[in-house]
Amino acid sequence: MYRFSFVGMKRILVILTGGTICMVRHPQSGALCPADVETFKAYVPEIFAGDIRVEMLPFNPLIDSSDISPENWVKMATTVADHYANYDGFVILHGTDTMSYSASALSFMLENLAKPVVFTGAQLPVGVLRSDAKENLLTAIEIAAATNAAGKAMVPEVTVFFEDSLFRANRTTKKNAERFEAFDSFNYPSLAKAGVHIQYRTNCIRYPHDNFPLFTHLHTCTDVAVLKLFPGINETVVRAVLDTPNLRGLVLETYGSGNAPSAHWLYQALKQATDKGIIIVNKTQCSMGSVDMGQYEVAQNLLKAGVLSGYDITTEALLTKMMTLFGENPDNPEKVKHLLQTPIAGEMTIPYQG
């Protein structure tokens, strides 16, 4: 019998939150249902037979990703923090529909992260013959355990791995509900590509500059909203959103490089909102590219109304960043404004203005 020692082995904690990857067929009904952890393990025995020590910790109950809330993000971040000293890396299994939101949120909640936190999932359940679950999980574990020549974590940040690509979490968006390549990072390169070997792009990975201990930001605020502009949008709709009780922040999804209709009523509505303290951030509806409110005249009203630029940030990252910043700084809107314009976890690129 093959024997091995756990001494010196990398230890990875797999946190099961739910989602398609954690589902199997019921033996009697044939319907898909969440698997208990022992059943799940039986479908992926390979992860316990290699040179990485893997342990699993399931949420109870498992959560459909459509039901994910900020309270669940806090639980994920707390779970990582509580076990941080005992493991070399973490893999979080999560449903695909809201994975980019959860992964983005954790990138802002886990400050001074020096160990990998890799989100992954599957388009088909682990209990289905053609499932992509095994390959995604096995590769995510290998990435979470990978170290460089200095013995440090190869990718010490929150990431999303799917199909063959590793992305910075707060740069991702789910792009496809049918294909195995479910996610993309439209404005930032992948951090690694998995083939026969995993090729890491170390120049794209964020590495901690200092040896500060992990710090968690566990307060969130949900008094935020998203308003997507469209041709024919009327004042009643816009004001209904802006007049939402207790609204503190708004993601304004605009056209192209940050353009909006030139209607005077829109300018007035946005200006009145910012004057009463609502922070509005301009986010382009385009998957690729950045907001530049100085490029076209139709964007000038947004600048005059006090709207901030979101540059090339994703909606998922901007929304979760707002939630975290408002939660951590409830009485300091100027600090929130400043940090919304500042990359704090590699979530956006600000053009050089020299």
User: So what's the CATH class of the largest domain?
Assistant: Alpha Beta
Topology order in helix (H) and strand (E) letters: EEEHEHEHEEHEEEEEEEEHEHEHEHH
**Low-confidence spans: pLDDT under 50, at least 5 residues?**
1-7
Helix coverage percent of residues?
Answer: 25-40%
Strand content is 15-25%
Q: Taking strands numbered 1, 2, ... along the chain, how are they ordered across the largest sheet?
A: 4-1-5-7-8-9-12-13
- Output mean pLDDT: 93
Rg value: 21 Å
Please name the defining characteristics of this protein.
disordered N terminus, 9 helices, 354 residues, four-stranded parallel β-sheet, Rossmann fold
Overview of the molecule:
This protein is α/β, with parallel strands linked by helices and 354 residues long. It has 2 domains: 207 residues, Rossmann fold (3-Layer(aba) Sandwich), CATH 3.40.50.1170; 117 residues, Rossmann fold (3-Layer(aba) Sandwich), CATH 3.40.50. The chain is built from 9 helices and 18 strands. Helix 4 links the parallel strand 7 and strand 8. The N terminus is likely disordered.
